[in-house]
Amino acid sequence: MDFQYDIIVVGGGHAGCEAAHAAATMGAKTLLITMDMTKLAQMSCNPAMGGIAKGQIIREIDAMGGMSGIVTDRSMIQFRMLNKSKGPAMWSPRAQCDRQKFTIEWRKVLEGSDNLYIWQEQANSLILDGIKIQGVQTSFGTRFYSKAVILTNGTFLNGLMHIGFKNIKGGRSGEQSSTGLSEQLEQLGFSVERMKTGTSARVDGRSIDFKAMTEQKGDDEERSFSYLMENRTLLEQRSCYITHTNENVHEEIRKGLEFSPLFTGRIKGRGPRYCPSIEDKVVTFKERNSHQLFIEPEGEDTVEYYINGFSSSLPLEVQLKALRKVRGLEKVEMFRPGYAIEYDFFQPTQLTHTLETKAISNLYFAGQINGTTGYEEAAAQGLIAGINSVLKVRNYEPLVLGREESYIGVLIDDLVTKGVDEPYRMFTSRAEYRILLRQDNADERLTRKAFDLGTAKRDRVSHLQEKEDMIKEIIDFLAEKSVDPEEINGFLEEVGTKKIIQKVKAISIASRPQVEIRALLKVMKGVDKLKAVNSDRFKEISESAEIKIKYEGYIQREKIVADKIKRLESLRIPEDINFNELVSISTEGRQKLTKIKPSNIGQAGRISGVSPSDINILLMYLGR
């Protein structure tokens, strides 16, 4: 070992794994430092990937050559496409995973990556040369040197776990916390704050009465997260189950509130508003007499289950009593209780859009260290930090994804422009251009860009080109082909839509909301020669073609708006500008602009506290 690397990644969670894989794939000599090689990309909370907006993020990571989608497919025990009753902008893939297999598959990926090395130890300080990073030092005094460092420490920075009034230092159940880095960064001028998250009890499936619950199976149709569908491993599919709390459950929780670290002030960190603990739900939503719970399997061949919706830091006895008042859980046995965890994070306004820190050159932050919550948000940041760290040390132009081209772009822009006052979670509502950022077209938006960067291989581009060609083939066929009443009216009556009285172009039939293109093509003449129809990708292709046909007007209108806004992103603000000299800008506006240091007018306009009149003054200053 020569202890010299191009990139060092600290932390082996979802962010760290994606960062290390991306950097190594681009040819950089990369070191991943983790405290436990058996816990790579550990699913610390529920064993699932994706969901509303989060599924779009995983698709984007996959489109750019990241591995979260492929690893999910290899460890999947259930797949569901959520929100299919709504428009395609809301469709979101979600997969239940085998927790252990997920970690094992990630380890295979990392150990099989060229240019990637792994070291198992705690990193507790940075090696600096003035304001430029030089490497890291571990707890045993080992010094590793590099051109860039990416910190992805998750919940481990001074992590403190709470169960009732008992607390234990640790970054995760059974694992020690990480110390030293927060203190050093604070001395260097970084603002360090505290956040709180939590997890639910793990219970023994042998003690659950599943017949008293509602079974929730996965989709019947074969689907995958990755656009490279051949990576899917068909593990035994497992169902989730739905049950609900009731007033008896809530009463047990109220009795235990005097022992709650959350309500007695022992927990200081801010928790996630969109994923509150069960005690928080009972107190905040007093009018509700029940809350939905999902009983999720932890793996293909284990009896362990996760209770989604019952995150708690109440004492063990209170958790158990309350759970045993839930229908189907009357005799439940625990493997371990739920707990809350407090940890250090750094306001992401201290970063640029590349996720490089403003104070220390070539130092990057990614994941929960930036105040986010969720595996998907962390993995996305890791991917971008990994790519940008390599581009920086090679003196190439950085990668900054726009809000109009990815949820990842929305995520990072929100973080570095607005900061966070609670753990940040992605929702479709955060994106202005949802109809452009669909789960079906992430490869169309990002794969060629990723190929130019070196994270996506040629096979992905070929796969994408084949998809685009077949989509065009279907749309052209429908646009050119006419259908007569005798050929199509029986089908139209069957699907509940108006019959035709004369020949019309098939694309006008395809644009009707009641008509599914796959079904339409089956009753039309001349489709047997279409490559798409004869492909094993027919479902994927026809679905994308249908979205483009039915939502063409919406898509075009959104593109026009996005192009107008994008022009503001091209209006660069000089790096050496002194906003305090622009006295016509409001005091709050000058303070916020000085703090955030936006790189362009578009970003400046999204800063809370910067008014439209402030932007007009900036535009006049820039001669616009």
Description:
With 624 residues, the protein is of the alpha+beta class. Helix content is 35%, strand content 19%. It is globular. Among the domains are: 200-338, Elongation Factor Tu (Ef-tu), domain 3, CATH 2.40.30; 458-555, tRNA uridine 5-carboxymethylaminomethyl modification enzyme MnmG/GidA (Arc Repressor Mutant, subunit A); 574-621, GidA associated domain, C-terminal subdomain (DNA polymerase, domain 1). The longest helix has 23 residues, at 458-480. Helix 12 (458-480) packs across helix 16. The chain has 20 helices and 21 strands. Strand 8 and strand 9 (143-151) form a beta hairpin.
Brief account:
With 624 residues, this protein is α+β, with helices and mostly antiparallel strands. Among the domains are: 200-338, Elongation Factor Tu (Ef-tu), domain 3 (Beta Barrel); 458-555, tRNA uridine 5-carboxymethylaminomethyl modification enzyme MnmG/GidA (Arc Repressor Mutant, subunit A); 574-621, GidA associated domain, C-terminal subdomain (DNA polymerase, domain 1, Orthogonal Bundle), CATH 1.10.150.570.
Q: How many angstroms separate the termini?
A: 56 Å
Bulk shape: globular
What is the CATH T-level topology of the domain at 200-338? Elongation Factor Tu (Ef-tu), domain 3
User: Largest sheet, if any?
Assistant: 9 strands, antiparallel
Strand content: 15-25%
How would you summarize the topology of this molecule?
Blueprint (H helix, E strand, L loop, with lengths): L3 E7 L3 H12 L4 E5 L13 E3 L3 H10 L4 H7 L1 E7 L9 E6 L1 H13 L4 E5 L2 E7 L2 E7 L4 E9 L8 E4 L2 E4 L11 H7 L4 E13 L9 E3 L23 E5 L2 H9 L22 H7 L7 E6 L6 E8 L4 H8 L10 E3 L2 E8 L16 E3 L9 H19 L13 H12 L23 H12 L4 H23 L1 E2 L1 H11 L8 E2 H5 L6 H7 L14 H13 L1 H18 L17 H10 L4 H5 L6 H10 L3
Parallel strand pairs: 1-2, 1-9, 2-6, 9-19
Antiparallel strand pairs: 3-5, 4-5, 7-8, 8-9, 10-11, 10-18, 12-16, 12-17, 12-18, 13-14, 14-15, 15-16, 20-21
Helix pairs in contact: 1-9, 2-9, 2-11, 3-4, 6-8, 11-12, 12-16
